[in-house]
Design brief:
The chain is mainly α and 103 residues long. The chain has a domain of 52 residues. The chain is built from three helices and no strands. The longest helix has 37 residues. The model has no long low-confidence stretch (mean pLDDT 83). One of its GO terms (cellular component) is ER to Golgi transport vesicle membrane. InterPro entries: Vma21. Required for the assembly of the V0 complex of the vacuolar ATPase (V-ATPase) in the endoplasmic reticulum. Belongs to the VMA21 family.
């Protein structure tokens, strides 16, 4: 009976194995997430103000209220483009890279 108790206590005393095989993919995923987070914040806001000031009010001579509306449309389109790019990159991030032709 002591042999069974000792074997079970030895397995409990051993530290769990450390799995470091996926650290590279975790860092890559976090870098991708950080990049698209920054892009999601800066691109729509930047395009909103740039298109309002330079395109709609500057080049097209629209009124201020009209330029707000069209600049908001540009910003919403930018959000959709960033989201679509994020989904595309996240979908293909874990896919194995094929180097040759597969028959």
């Amino acid at each position: 009976m002591d042999g069974n108790v000792r074997a079970s206590s030895d397995t409990l005393a051993a530290p769990p194995p450390i799995f470091r095989g996926n650290e590279g993919s975790l860092v890559s995923a976090l870098k991708t997430l950080l990049f698209f987070t920054i892009l999601m914040v800066t691109l729509p806001i930047g395009l909103y103000f740039a298109s309002k000031a330079y395109i709609f009010e500057g080049s097209m001579k629209m009124s201020s209220s009209d330029s707000y509306f069209y600049a908001a449309i540009v910003a919403v389109l930018a959000v959709h483009v960033v989201l679509a790019l994020f989904v595309y990159v996240a979908w293909n991030e874990g896919a194995p890279k094929s180097k040759g032709k597969h028959d």
